[in-house]
Amino acid sequence: MVCLEKLNNLAQNLNSEHIDLPSIFLGKGVIKEITNYLKQNEFQHITFVVDNNTFKAAGETIKSNILNEGFEAHVVVLTDNGNQQVIADEQTLVELFTKTPMDTDVYIAVGAGTIHDITRFCAYYMKLPFISVPTAASVDGFTSKGAPVILKGVKETLQTSSPIAVFADTDILASSPKELTAAGFGDMIAEYTSLLDWKISAWIGHEPYNQQAAEITKDALQLCVDHCEEIANHSSYGLEVLMKALIESGLVMLLLNYSRPASGAEHHLSHYWEMSLLKNGKKQLLHGAKVGVASTIIIDEYKNKLATKNVDSFTGTTLGQRLTQHWQEIMTVIDDLPSAVEVAEMLSLVHGPSKVEELGLEKELVLESLQNAHTLRERCTGLFLLNTLLSPNRIIGL
Ligand SMILES: [Zn+2]
Q1: How far is CA 359 from CA 141, 353, 370, in A?
Q2: Rounded to the nearest whole angstrom, what is the distance from the C-alpha of residue 37 to the centroid of ligand 1?
Q3: What is the pLDDT of residues 273-327, one digit of tens each?
Q4: Rounded distance, CA 172 to CA 202, Å?
Q5: Which of 82, 136, 146, 287 could staple 176 via S-S, CB 3.0–4.6 A?
């Protein structure tokens, strides 16, 4: 089991020991330990949540292991939509509710982010625990409570359940498609800008900030950057490093009960793009692929636009005063960012998209999102500053 010393320390300092951190099993062959875990926790009736691919990748093996030990297993294979994607919308959520046997003791989610989101949503409303078996190191949200779901065509993130245990088997992760690993790397690399935006929000928006949480997230990001080659080679070790970073980063958000360390303006851009794809019935892109590219765009905006602004005239308003007061610090953290080119090179190295064109998004949509994405969440970010206080059509009174 993975040692969570840093996270336990953070829990103590936040007075959130009451939050039960999931047990984390990470490494080669850890799915074999699931049966023991089920025995120890006296679970008997298990419902697997899979899609066709993840059943083959891992579900089948786990199912036969647990059947051999005398457990009862029921498998729900979620059906995909017209674009051959499983989507966390009303249809799929109801599908899982109605296909869950009434005597289920525990769910096992076997898959990437979306299968986890559907499972955590149903687990929460069915008052059942769930176990996470990621089949790809594709996202930082496996341990999260937040379930992004699409209700009446609009994406909303609802607070539901986090898993009681995670079994991240690096043999399975290493045989997942490289684009999924690249997406996980993209979700980590996005923390360059999300961590910076978190600082800006604390300085200007007076939002809560936690240095220890920021340090753990920063270390997790650095670990991925330092092992970029191994992750690109899809070695078992590379996958272990990436998955560890994704899990740590996810647990920090779980303890804080907000996503600020790993979600800034780059996530707002990605969310804007996602809404547009949804509205137009287009195929969804991987979360990490979008936020990775979005973070290169945000770095460019901050280095080339935000850092060139003149703040001398901002003494009149409260926000303006704070901006003037912290401007030098903001300049320093922007200066510390790697360049957009360096980040794009890392994304390419791990076989992920690094440009908007590779995502297949229209230039107009990207420009529109840069103008409007800051309105999606009430969060202070560098993009928010660029579009309000520091905009040429500045909104007087802010
Ligand atoms: Zn993310």
Answers
A1: 22, 7, 16
A2: 29
A3: 999 998 898 888 999 999 999 999 999 999 999 998 887 766 667 878 888 899 9
A4: 40
A5: 136
The DSSP secondary structure of 131-176, one letter per residue, reads EEEESS---S-TT-SEEEEEETTEEEEEE----SEEEEEHHHHHTS
320 C-alpha to ligand 1 centroid (Å) = 30
pLDDT for 134: 98
- Give the pLDDT band of residue 1 (cuts 50, 70, 90): low
Amino acid making up residue 242 = L
Domain ranges of the chain: 5-176, 179-208+258-387
Write down the architecture of domain 179-208+258-387 according to CATH. Answer: Up-down Bundle (1.20)
Ligand 1 centre distance from Cα of residue 188 (Å): 8
CB 183 within 8 A of CB 286: yes
- C-alpha to C-alpha distance for 236 and 228, rounded to whole angstroms: 13
Closest CA to 136 of 219, 40, 57, 51: 57
Question: Helices 211-226 and 178-189, interaxial angle, to 10°?
Answer: 140
Quote the ligand 1 centre to 5 CA distance (angstroms): 24
Tokens 């969570």 label which residue? 4
Tell me: the pLDDT tens digits for 100-127? 999 999 999 999 999 999 999 999 999 9
Contact 250, 141 (CB under 8 A): yes
pLDDT digits (tens, 9 = 90+) for 215-267: 999 999 999 999 999 999 999 999 999 999 999 999 999 999 889 999 999 99
Q: How many angstroms does the Cα of residue 180 sit away from the middle of ligand 1? A: 13
Cα of 3 to ligand 1 centre, how many Å? 23
Question: Which residue is it, tokens 């360049």?
Answer: 339
Tokens of 237: 């070790």
Class of domain 5-176: alpha beta
